[in-house]
Specification:
Blueprint (H helix, E strand, L loop, with lengths): L2 H16 L11 H11 L3 H19 L5 H18 L5 H26 L7 H37 L2 H8 L1
């Protein structure tokens, strides 16, 4: 395994650990971790399995819930969005991918809340009501996803660009 792989894996592990420390509701590094993994890890199997494994390990500590299939499925899709970033990563594309990842996660997980829960009528109105009432959570998740995505991709750019060695030499 190359040092870049271990560096990427370390950043993913730190993001997974961040789920375990106190944080505002829906502000977690899960979507950012999946995007980053998809974009940076060379092998598609690693790009998908590593964020799922990190999510599972942190869920062992946090507990399991009824919506896990939709959460894990969403993370697979976000990892695939990250894989698309591998071709031409840029700041704008990373921001767009983060918004897309947040939106995919929001749409899928809230659809399953509507479908499997008792809170909303199983009608078109009930689905709209579910999404509408979840919008404040989406806002928090989107802000957190953008921040964590910026942290992961920014740290990666700094640590792999040679700039880190220049900074290190001045300390």
């Amino acid at each position: 395994m190359r040092p870049r792989f271990w560096l990427a894996l370390s950043l993913i592990a730190m993001a997974a650990f961040a789920r375990l420390i106190p944080h505002p509701a829906n502000v977690t590094p899960v979507v950012a971790m999946a995007l980053f993994s998809g974009s940076v890890l060379g092998r598609r199997a690693f790009a998908i399995l590593i964020p799922l494994a990190a999510l599972f390990v942190s869920d062992l500590a946090l507990g399991f819930h009824d919506q896990m299939i939709s959460v894990y499925g969403s993370i697979v899709l976000v990892s695939l969005i990250g894989i698309l970033l591998t071709k031409k990563p840029s700041a704008g594309r990373v921001v767009a991918a983060s918004v897309a990842g947040s939106t995919v996660f929001f749409l899928i997980t809230n659809f399953t809340v509507w479908l499997s829960g008792e809170m909303y009528a199983k009608t078109g109105f009930g689905l709209i009501q579910c999404y509408t009432l979840a919008l404040p959570f989406y806002r928090h998740a989107l802000i957190g996803d953008l921040a964590f995505t910026g942290l992961l991709f920014g740290a990666w750019a700094l640590l792999t660009s040679g700039a880190a060695s220049k900074v290190k030499g001045t300390v």
